[in-house]
Design goal:
The complex is a heterotetramer of chains A (110), B (231), C (585) and D (512).
Chain A: H1 22-49, H2 64-87, E1 88-89
Chain B: H1 2-9, H2 11-29, H3 33-55, H4 75-81, H5 85-97, H6 131-142, H7 149-159, H8 168-198, H9 203-215, H10 221-226
Helix pairs in contact in B: 2-3, 3-8, 5-6, 6-7
Chain D: H1 12-25, H2 31-58, E1 61-64, E2 81-84, H3 86-113, H4 119-138, H5 142-161, H6 169-199, H7 204-211, H8 217-234, H9 243-249, H10 252-278, H11 284-308, H12 313-334, H13 337-368, H14 373-376, H15 379-382, H16 384-398, H17 404-417, H18 425-451, H19 467-485, H20 487-504
Antiparallel strand pairs in D: 1-2
Helix pairs in contact in D: 1-2, 1-4, 2-3, 2-4, 3-4, 3-10, 3-13, 3-19, 3-20, 4-5, 4-10, 5-6, 6-8, 6-9, 7-10, 8-10, 9-10, 9-12, 10-12, 10-13, 10-20, 11-12, 11-18, 12-13, 12-18, 13-16, 13-17, 13-19, 13-20, 16-18, 16-19, 17-18, 17-19
The chains are: A mainly alpha (110), B mainly alpha (231), C mainly alpha (585), D mainly alpha (512).
GO cellular component, one term (chain C): plasma membrane
Membrane topology (chain C): Multi-pass membrane protein
InterPro entries (chain C): ComplexI-like_HydComp, ND/Mrp_TM
Chain lengths: 110, 231, 585, 512
């Protein structure tokens, strides 16, 4: 899950960390997909085995939570993007950029 | 006719108001500090006139006991305690000042007719129209207190037949005049100091300089230049 | 001196405030930090000596009177004790975290701030609550200002106004309550009076609480101020103010129906803002606000389980949110920036901080074995049991929001991926910061694994089993599929980081059109004023000129020095007075 | 009065400083006049405390000047009387108390701001001003009020003008004040003249007896003149323009003394006239009270807004004073015991607050020569005692709990809720809260400058203010905290004083 098309700063070749190795990325993907499948299956089995105690009819659906997770994630991704497009202004919109810099107060702080 | 009487009868008020307004207007409109003080003086003077006029009646005399007053030994006591000051200030003045016929602003007794014999007229709104009250008061106090007060009551009764001018407003205004003098002196002294510090006593120039000192920009740029830049 | 002081000084919070003043006078950061930690432990020992008491039989201490009103400095019951304990833990973690980096101001004000929060939750009456409420507001302003930039100053000013405004609403409500009933006791209130009309006093108090609890539309100070503070300051800010408000709501308005709606809106709305924000601490601030929605919902439901859930979640939230702010603070300390656009791949240089951020993400999203799982389940279950379906849906959505905002944005985008320029930093977080983060992470794990430890402290005895199969399965489904979707979106280039810049919020309303309007009104008034005055002068002058030709041109037109102005004004006032007098009746 | 051995007590607060003042003029410039003035203020303070205690225990005290009291069988006294009830005993104690702290404070400040040779004259004027303020408060004679008013005003003009050595604008400020003050006082005299014409008496209590039921044009005009005149001296909002410059350019010690006492005494006079002299039978009172609500609220906001944008701290505080007068007017305007008590409490508390603040600014002016905001940058590092004193008293101004400002605000809100006016009480309370926010902004601005702004790089190192100034300032700062815990003195006395005021006006209860 470390694919990143939008790393804004300089991409450096040859600086691949532990998680950037191709083998590692594959393992991560497999693990993610496998655990998704396992918990979806467990959910369906749980329905049959009587583990689940749905509060409403809605969450009586076998993979309701899986669907909910995916749908909300999609809505959130799109919504966040739209909101960002609509409401983000340049950094100097309210304050001048100089306001963000910190005068050295002699305490040697970052 | 009533209106004319109303207006004429209160001419002292009109003088006072006119003078006051002139004084206030000078304070408002003059740009020169000395002239402002002149206006202030005029304004204060109008109040002096107001006070003096409310205490004065034509034919009234200074508040000194007239007539046969014999009890010399008890003079100071009697005078100081009640017969004159108290009687006049509390009962006579209070009721007398307020017109019996319910007019809001009493017309001044300067214009009222004062009988020649000194016997006060019952209808004239003067300060001392209530001899009966005074006599009663004095007598009432005297009885049962001390026999020597009989003479005091007697004197008060006689005094009540004389018309006195109420001295209190005059005394008060003497104080106010002193205060006025002090104010004028201080105001003029300040004007001198301002002249030393600023080189001018014209208010708009002073304002321009103060404005410049506070904000660092001329108050009226175009005017400032036209006048050669007061700032 | 009066018994009021004697009463107040028994309150551990008050003692901590005194300690804060003393710490301000000590030289050297280390000494200040040691003294602060000692004070925190000492005051906690005092609190612990008071023990605890059940909800329906609180122990009251430090009773006194202030101009005839009864004050109770300390009320010990399980609700107040759990919050006070939580604040002591948070204060201790803050002291350790800022061991090397807290300025004198932050060290001292941090203690006063913590003390005010502790005093506030222990307060037994509304006036004492107000006293600490204001102290918390004022001390925290200095922490915002501790950010040191001019932007921090301005944000601090806005924060000050809104916080003092919250205090004023509270004070007005309390004054009204006292005027109406003569009672000052802080007990459960209702927004509707007995005859069904609106209870204004309670409403004012509610608004006062609501501002600090970050109710929607009243929340804007939170994402505005927190990101401006210093690394140490933001951690302090994240712990106290909002949770103190949650306590106050739990005490004053349990089961108030409107809270469910408010909480649901909070939980959902702010995850979108969090997704759109570019400054990472701003993301955290919105996420915090969304988590507050959980607690507000729980209080709104008002059942024993729901209140327990809200309190438990407040407890967990302080710890893990503090931990995340600590991690971001460490990044700020090392990398000097928190703009999402400039950071990625930090795990190489700061592996331990990355691990902490990962644990934080696991906790906040509610992965089993971490504190968030047990505390969130309680509120969600309560919503389900009492069939508040909208609330329940909102809380589920908020959980997914946490996956995106914390799991993806804070952890993945910042620490994973290729290394950006800004991420080329010299080393991991300084040792005291790491210790504080490790302690917080440990608490998250302990509570997650052994939840009964926390439950024994909660207000009500309620036997709740978190680790059941259906909880585990549903929660894991929710998180894993959300993660899957985000991963796929990244894989296929459908998702991008938010644009760099400032994200507009409600505060835009007063920062832009509000400011323009204010400036316009001021300028307009000044112009109208000037015109009026000159008009009067000109009018008078013309009149006089008409009457007397003697009036020269140097007259009234040319001047505006105040003497004349004032004198005229006096005359006008007198005239008005006289007219009104004569016409009045 | 039946207090053995203390028959002459009521006259002493006026006589002691009055006699002491001319003696000061004869002293050598320097330490002697200052020490003498301080001693006098302390003695006077003790006397006023005794008087307060006597009034608290025995009830109102009357003292006939020269023995010219009311003769037997007569209600009204012949001469001037001093009449002390709790309301003016409280204000007297306040004025003398502030003086006894500010006078010692003044030494270094005066040495640096005023020509050394002028110091005897300065302390003479100061003592005369002190006399005048005490006299205005203590007297029971309406004309005597005018005399003392002018005594204090004239010396105040001179004192303000002495600030000219630092900034020549003190002269124009003083001149403005002189013109306006004279107009105000003259209005007052006219009003008294009209009342005298209507009643024939000048004694306040007797005036009330005579005015009962009288409601005619003359009395109304008198009322209008008196309220406008005192309103001007009080800096009630449209008539406040003289105040900011006067407080700003006066010598620091004078700013502190005047801000804490002068307007407070005027508030007392307004109270005395509205409730004791005119009383609730006077139909026009209600109109005036309604006007006060509006003026009070307008003042609270207008002046606070101006204060936020001022770049000179002294001016900022002066405008803040005008705003605080708005609170006092608001309390009066409720026309209830609680409202008047709240007003009196705020009179007392605000005096403590403003004295401390102006004293702090005086320390800064002494060391840094300026009261502009720029001088306050980083002050907490350069002059920590002064800076923290300013912050604590600033918090008190905002109305933060644990300081007296909170008591004022609380009492005012409580009173507002128990009143029916044409503005809903809730709105009034919210407005009080909103204007506190403005106070929070300007105090916050000051606090930020002092605590978090860096010290200017080219700044020379400065010492803290002299011990004497710091100690006296901190006495005031600690008083701000002390009187939060010790509310018996303020709330207790003020409530009983308000009851007394309204009882004489027969307005206690629901006449309004």
């Amino acid at each position: 899950m470390s694919d990143n098309h939008h790393t804004p700063a300089s991409e450096e070749t040859g600086d691949t960390g532990f998680f950037e190795k191709p083998g590692m990325r594959k393992i991560l993907w497999v693990a993610l997909l496998a655990s998704c499948a396992i918990f979806a299956a467990l959910g369906i089995y749980g329905m049959v085995a009587g583990w689940m105690h749905p509060y409403f009819t809605l969450d009586g659906l076998p993979v309701f939570y899986a669907l909910a997770g995916a749908i909300v994630a999609a809505v959130l991704g799109a919504g966040g993007r739209l909101l960002s497009e609509a409401l983000t202004k340049p950094s100097d919109y309210y304050d001048s950029p100089a306001d963000e810099t910190r005068p050295d107060d002699g305490e040697g702080r970052p | 006719m009533d209106i004319i009487e109303f207006i004429v009868g209160r001419y002292n008020y009109w003088i006072f108001i006119t003078l006051m307004m002139i004084g206030l207007y000078i304070v408002i409109s003059r740009g020169n500090l000395i002239k402002t003080i002149v206006g202030l003086n005029l304004f204060q003077t109008s109040v002096f006139i107001f006070y003096i006029s409310i205490g004065k009646i034509v034919g009234g005399t200074a508040p000194i006991l007239v007539g046969s007053y014999k009890a010399d030994d008890s003079y100071g006591e009697g005078y100081g305690d009640e017969s004159h000051g108290a009687g006049e200030q509390t009962s006579g003045a209070r009721e007398g000042l307020h017109d019996a016929d319910g007019l809001d602003i009493p017309s001044n007794s300067l214009s009222a007719e004062v009988p020649a014999g000194g016997a006060p007229s019952a209808v004239s709104g003067s300060l001392h129209q209530m001899p009966d009250t005074a006599r009663e008061t004095a007598a009432g106090m005297a009885s049962g207190v001390n026999a020597t007060y009989d003479s005091v009551a007697d004197a008060a009764a006689q005094g009540a037949e004389v018309i006195y001018t109420n001295p209190l407003p005059h005394v008060l205004i003497l104080t106010a005049i002193v205060v006025g003098v002090a104010t004028t002196a201080l105001g003029l002294a300040l004007a001198v100091r301002i002249r030393e510090a600023y080189g001018t006593i014209e208010e708009d120039e002073l304002e321009a300089e103060d404005h410049f000192a506070e904000f660092g920009v001329p108050l009226h740029p175009e005017q400032g230049q036209a006048r050669g830049g007061a700032a | 001196m009066s018994d009021l002081l004697a009463g107040l000084i028994q309150n551990p919070g008050m003692l901590l405030i005194v300690a804060g003043v003393i710490v301000a006078l000590l030289p050297g950061r280390q000494l200040r930090a040691i003294a602060a930690l000692a004070a925190i432990i000492g005051c906690y020992a005092l609190l612990a000596s008071y023990g605890t008491a059940p909800m329906d039989a609180p122990v009251l201490m430090g009773e006194s009177t202030l101009f005839g009103l009864d004050l109770v400095s300390i009320r010990i019951d399980r609700l107040s004790v759990v919050f006070a304990t939580l604040f002591f833990i948070a204060a201790g973690l803050n002291a350790i975290y800022g061991w090397l980096h807290a300025s004198r101001m932050e060290a001292s004000m941090g203690l006063i701030y913590a003390g005010a929060a502790i005093g506030g939750v222990l307060a037994g009456d509304l006036l004492t609550l107000f006293i600490f409420w204001e102290l918390a507001a004022l001390s925290s302003v200095f922490i915002v200002w501790g950010g040191g930039t001019h932007a921090a100053f301005k944000a601090g000013m806005r924060y000050l106004v809104i916080q003092v405004g919250s205090g004023m609403a509270l004070m007005a409500g309390v004054a009204l309550t006292v005027a109406a009933t003569g009672e000052t006791a802080f007990t459960a209130m209702s927004l509707t009076a007995e005859d069904g009309s609106l209870n204004i006093a309670a409403l004012l108090i509610f608004i006062g609480f609501g501002v600090k609890a970050g109710f929607p539309l009243l929340h804007f100070w939170l994402p505005d101020a927190y990101p401006r503070a210093s690394a140490v300051g933001a951690v302090m800010l994240s712990a106290f103010t909002t949770k103190m408000a949650i306590y106050a709501l739990a005490r004053g308005f349990p089961g108030e129906d409107i809270l469910m709606l408010i909480g649901a809106v909070m939980a959902v709305a702010f995850i979108f803002f969090g997704a759109a924000a570019s400054d990472l601490r701003r993301v955290l601030a919105y996420s915090l606000n969304s988590q507050l929605g959980f607690m507000v919902c729980g209080i709104g439901i008002g059942s024993e389980l729901a209140i327990n859930g809200a309190v438990a979640h407040a407890f967990a939230s302080v710890i893990y949110k503090g931990m995340l702010f600590m991690a971001m603070g460490a990044v700020l300390t090392r990398a000097g920036t928190l703009r999402a656009a400039h950071l990625s791949g930090l795990y190489r240089a700061m592996p331990l901080t990355a691990l902490v951020a990962f644990i934080g993400a696991l906790t906040i999203t509610g992965v089993p074995l971490f504190a968030g799982f047990v505390t969130k389940s309680m509120t969600i279950s309560a919503a389900g049991y009492y069939e508040h379906m909208l609330v329940w849906l909102a809380l589920i959505a908020a959980t997914v929001g946490a996956v995106n905002n914390i799991g993806v944005r804070i952890f993945h985008d910042t620490f994973m991926g290729a290394r950006s320029d800004a991420a080329k930093v010299s080393g991991d977080a300084p040792l005291p910061m790491l210790i504080a983060m490790a302690l917080a992470a440990a608490i998250c794990l302990v509570v997650g694994i052994q939840p009964t430890l926390l439950w024994s402290m909660l207000p009500f005895d309620y036997d709740y089993a978190a680790y059941t199969m259906d909880h585990l399965i549903t929660q894991m489904q929710l998180i894993l599929f959300a993660v899957l979707l985000f991963a796929l979106a990244r894989r296929f280039g459908l998702a991008a980081r938010p644009r760099d810049g400032v994200l507009l919020d409600v505060d835009w309303l007063y920062r832009v059109p509000g400011r323009i309007a204010l400036a316009g009104v001021v300028r307009g008034t000044a112009a109208a004023w000037h015109r009026l005055w000159w008009g009067i002068q000109a009018g008078v002058a013309r009149l006089v000129k008409g009457l007397y030709d003697t009036h020269g041109p140097e007259g009234a037109l040319a001047r505006s020095w105040p003497v004349g102005f004032m004198a005229l004004f006096t005359a006008v006032v007198l005239g008005l007075m006289l007219i009104v007098t004569f016409v009045a009746y | 009065m039946a207090i053995p051995g203390l028959e002459q007590l009521p006259v002493l607060p006026v006589v002691i400083p009055l006699v002491a003042a001319p003696l000061t003029l004869l002293m050598k410039p320097g330490r002697a006049p200052w020490a003498w003035a301080t001693l006098v203020s302390w003695v006077t303070f003790v006397v006023t405390l005794l008087l307060l205690e006597a009034v608290w225990v025995h009830g109102p005290v009357e003292y006939a000047m020269g023995g010219w009291g009311a003769p037997e069988g007569m209600s009204a006294p012949i001469g001037i009387t001093y009449y002390v009830d709790l309301a003016n005993a409280l204000v007297l104690t306040l004025v003398a108390g502030i003086a006894s702290v500010v006078f010692p404070y003044a030494y270094y400040s005066v040495e640096s701001e005023i020509d050394h040779r002028q110091t005897p004259a300065f302390y003479t004027a100061l003592l005369i001003c002190f006399t005048g303020l005490l006299g205005v408060t203590i007297t029971g004679d309406a004309f005597n009020v005018f005399v003392f008013l002018e005594i204090s005003s004239l010396s105040t003009y001179a004192l303000i003008a002495m600030g000219a050595r630092n900034d020549r604008r003190a002269l124009t400020a003083s001149f403005n004040y002189l013109v306006m003050g004279t107009i105000g006082a003259t209005f007052y005299v006219i009003g008294i003249g009209l009342l005298y014409q209507a009643t024939g008496t000048l004694n306040m209590l007797d005036l009330h007896q005579q005015l009962m039921g009288q409601s005619n044009r003359m009395v109304e005009a008198g009322f209008a003149f008196i309220i406008t005149g005192i309103g001007l001296k009080l800096a009630m909002v449209p008539l406040h323009l003289w105040l900011p410059n006067a407080y700003c350019y006066a010598p620091s010690a004078i700013s502190a003394f005047l801000a804490a006492t002068a307007t407070k005494v005027q508030v007392y006079i307004i109270l005395r006239f509205m409730f004791s002299v005119f009383g609730f039978e006077f139909a026009f009172l209600e109109v005036a009270l309604n006007a006060f609500i509006v003026l009070g609220i307008v003042g609270m906001f207008y002046a606070s807004f101006v204060a936020v944008f001022r770049d000179n701290v002294k001016q900022m505080l002066a405008y803040s004073s005008i705003a605080q007068i708005g609170y006092m007017l608001l309390g009066i305007s409720f026309g209830t015991v609680d409202g008047v008590a709240a007003s009196l409490i705020h009179v007392f508390n605000h005096a403590l607050i403003k004295a401390a603040l102006f004293m702090g600014v005086g320390c800064v002016v002494l060391r840094l020569g300026s009261s502009n905001f720029a001088a306050f940058n980083g002050l907490a590092k350069r002059m920590p005692w002064t800076a923290w004193g300013l912050i604590i008293s600033g918090l008190s101004l905002v109305g933060v709990p644990l300081t007296v400002g909170f008591i004022s605000k609380w009492k005012l809100m409580e009173a507002a809720f128990q009143t029916q006016t044409f503005i809903p009480p809730l709105l009034i309370v919210l407005l009080i809260g909103a204007s506190s926010l403005l106070a929070a902004i300007y105090i916050g601005r000051l606090a930020y400058a002092m605590l978090l702004q860096p010290v200017p790089e080219d700044a020379e190192p400065v010492k803290e203010a002299p011990h004497l100034m710091r100690i006296t300032m901190w006495i005031m700062v600690l008083a701000n905290i002390w009187f939060f815990f010790q509310t018996d003195v303020t709330v207790g006395v003020a409530t009983r004083a308000a009851q007394a005021l309204l009882d004489t006006g027969l307005g206690y209860g629901g006449a309004y």
